[in-house]
Amino acid sequence: MMSNERATSHQERGELLPWGHLPAGGWGTPAGRYPHEPQNTGSPRASGRGSPSRRSRAVRRVIAVLGTGAVVAGVIGAAPAHTAAERGAGSGTSPAKTPVATGYGGAVSSVDADASAAGLQVLERGGNAADAAVATAAALGVTEPYSAGIGGGGYFVYYDASDRQVHTIDGRETAPLSADKHLFTEDGKPIPFDEAVTSGLGVGTPGTPATWEKALRTYGTTSLAKALRPATKLARRGFTVDQTFREQTAQNEDRFRDFPATADLFLPGGKLPEVGSTLKNPDLARTYQELSRKGTKALYRGELGRDIVRTVRKPPVAEGAGRTVRPGDMTAKDLRAYRALSQQPTRTAYRGLDVYGMAPSSSGGTTVAEALNILERGDLGSLSEKQYLHRYLEASRIAFADRGRWVGDPAQEDVPTKGLTSQRFADSRACLIDDQKALQSPVAPGDPRDPEECERGDADQAAPTTYEGQNTTHLTVADKWGNVAAYTLTIEQTGGSGITVPGRGFLLNNELTDFSFAPVSPGVHDPNLPGPGKRPRSSMSPTIVLRHGEPVLALGSPGGSTIITTVLQTLTNHLDRGMPLLDAIAAPRASQRNAAQTTVEPELMNSRVRKQLEALGHSFKQTPEIGAATAVQRLSGDRWRAAAEPERRGGGSAMVVRPTGG
Question: What three-state secondary structure class fits 300?
Fold first, then answer.
C-alpha cells in the first residue's frame, strides 16, 4: 500500500503529543512488558533476556520527502522475511536503508545499515540495549571509520529499566600526562590548526574500548567477544562503498596518501574506492579478534597499545611527503592510566518531562539544558515560524556564551554544572531576549554561581565559540525490557588524524585539537586549555527523555558544536511544535553558537523566514547540511519507533526486531 496522507492525530500515529496535550494514560507502559510474552519480574541484566523472536519481517521502506518543514512518509511493499543476520552485518549483503521503523522487541538507529543490522542481531539473540549498542558501535568502526573506531572516544548515556535511572560513561580521550597549556603553541604562538589535526600531537589516549568494556560489565548481558562478532565478520567480508564514503575519502585523499598504511587501506590500488565496490579490512578484523581474546588490556597494557604509542610518537609518513607531521608524546603510562568514568548525568525538567544528558567533560548536557530552561517560559507551539526560530537561536547564542566560559574537564576545572542547568540561572539570562531584535555576538557570559536578576555578563569576557571537527557518529538503541542507550562516539575530524596504525586497520583520533590552543579571551581564565591527563571539552549530546521514570525519547547527532543545536532543535520541533519524530529530524536546521552569523541549511537560506529574521538583525551563512541525528521513541503498547535522517549523510538506518505497519 502507498499513502501520502498524514495521520489525523498524534495518537493515531503513536507519536508524542505536544506539551499541554498529554495522553490521559501517560507515556508508554511499564518496563519489562512485551505483548504475547509473560512479564519478566527480574532484572533485565540478570534473568530477563527471554527468547528472541525470529519472525522478523524486512523493514518496510519509507519514502521521506522534505517539503515545507514536514516529511510525508509512504509505506511500500515489504521485502521477503529475513533475520538481521541474513540482511547484513557481515553476510556480504548490505541491507537496504530506511529512515523509520516501528514495531516490537527493540529498535536500533544509526547512520549505517550494516551497523544497525549488527545491533539488531544482538537484540534478536536475547541481548539488551547495552550489548546492542556496543555491537553497533563496533560495526560503525568498520563502515564509518572516518567518524569513529577504537582509536577514538565518546559518551554513553544509558537508561536502566531495572532501577529506572539514567547513567552515563565518560569515554572521552585524554591528553598525555606530560601535556601542559602550551601543548599547541610554538614560540609563544598557536601552531596552524591543520598541522595540529594531522599529527601525533593531536592524538588523545583512546577511550572507546574502555567504554565498551565498562558498558558491557555494568549494564550488559554478554561478553566483549560476543559483542564484537558481527563487526569482526563485517570487517573480514567487507561492506559496500556508497557515495558518502567515496566523497569523504576524496576530501582526505591528499593527506591519506602521505601515510602508507592509510593509503593502502582506504585508497585500494592507489585510487579512490568506487561506489558499489566492496571494501574489506582484514587488519581490523584481526584487531577485533585480539580484543575478543585478551580484552581491552590488549590496548591499554599490551602489544596493540605499544603499536599505538609507536605510531603517535613517530608518525609513519610516506617518503618524500612534504607535509609537516609533528610527533606526539603519548606513552604506555598514559594508556595504563586511562579510565572510562561513571558519572551522574545532567538533568533538567522541561514541560513535565525529565531531560537527561552528558555532564562535563562534555558541554552537551549543560548547554542543551540551559537553552531548554531559557525557552520553557514561553509557549513555543503557539508561535509563528519566525518567532520560534528567533527565540531558539537566541537561547542557543546565550547558552553557548556560558558554555565557552565555564565548561571544561571537571577533574581539573571548577565547573558550575548545577548552576548552568538551574532554572534560576536560565531565568536570569532569558531577559536578554528581545522578540523585536537579535542579540549581537559574541554575547558575554553570565555567572551561574550567583546570578543577578538580569545577568548580562561582563563584555570584556565575551568570546566566540572555538572550532570543533564536524564529524562523529551517533547511535540509539532500545530493547524489549525498556532499556535505552544513546551513544555518541568519534575520532573528531572526518578521517581523524589521517594516521592509521600500521597492521591494525583503524585511524587515530585528533581529539586534542578540541582544546583551546590559547585563551579565547586574553586575561580571562579558559577552562578548556590543555593539561596533564585532561579531557578536552566536547559538544557531544546523547540525550534521553523520561516521564515519570519511563523512557519517552532518546536521540543524538554528530556535527561538532552543531550537535548541541541539532539536539535542541529536534527536541523543540517534536516536544513543542508537535512534529512527528521523523519530521522533527528531517526539518531544515539552523545553528547559532554565539557567532556573528548563524549557519543554516539551504532550505532555510532560500526561505521567506530568513528575510524575516534578517529584519530582526540575524545574519546567515549557508552550509550543505547540519548533523545526522538518530533517535528511538517509545510508543503505546510496548512498541518502539526508530528514526534516522532521510537524506543527510546519505540517509540513516532505522530497524526494529518485529516490524509492524504503523
Answer: helix
Per-residue model confidence as pLDDT tens digits over 285-296: 999 999 999 999
Catalytic residue among 232, 296, 367, 472: 472
Cα–Cα dist 634/8, whole Å? 20
Distance, in Å, from the CA atom of 462 to the CA atom of 401, rounded to the nearest integer, reads: 7
Kindly tell me if the per-residue pLDDT of 74 is higher than 70: no
Q: Do residues 293 and 234 lie in contact, with contact meaning Cβ atoms separated by under 8 Å?
A: no
**Cα–Cα dist 57/55, whole Å:** 6
Query: Is pLDDT above 90 for 254?
Result: yes
Q: Tell me the C-alpha distance between 222 and 119, whole Å.
A: 13
Instruction: Respond yes or no: is residue 472 known to be catalytic.
Output: yes
Answer for the pair 588, 614: CB distance below 8 angstroms, yes or no: no
Alpha helices (runs of H) in 238-296, residue ranges in sequence order: 243-256, 260-266, 282-294
Q: What span, in angstroms and rounded, lies between the C-alpha atoms of 255 and 404?
A: 31
* Residue type, position 568, single letter: L
Alpha helix positions (H), 412-483? 417-420, 423-430
Strands (E), 407-460: none
How far separated are the first and last CA of the chain, in Å rounded?
12
- Alpha helical stretches, state H, 99-159: 113-124, 129-143
Per-residue HEC secondary structure of 333-346 comes to: HHHHHCCCEEECCE
Phi, psi of 173 (to 5 degrees): -70, 160
CA nearest to 343, candidates 172, 149, 580: 172
State the chain's mean pLDDT as an integer. 86
Using CA atoms, how far apart are residues 229 and 52, in angstroms rounded to an integer?
A: 18
Question: What backbone torsions phi and psi does residue 641 show, to the nearest 5 degrees?
Answer: -115, 125
Distance between CA atoms of residues 600 and 605, nearest Å: 6
| Per-residue pLDDT at 521 exceeds 90 | no
pLDDT tens digits for range 114-145: 999 999 999 999 999 999 999 999 999 999 99
Beta bridge partner(s), residue 507:
500
How many whole angstroms separate alpha carbon 41 and alpha carbon 346? 29
CA 662, CA 659: separation in Å to the nearest integer?
Answer: 9
For the chain, percent of residues with pLDDT exceeding 90: 80
**pLDDT by residue (tens digit) across 314-346?**
999 999 998 999 999 999 999 999 999 999 999
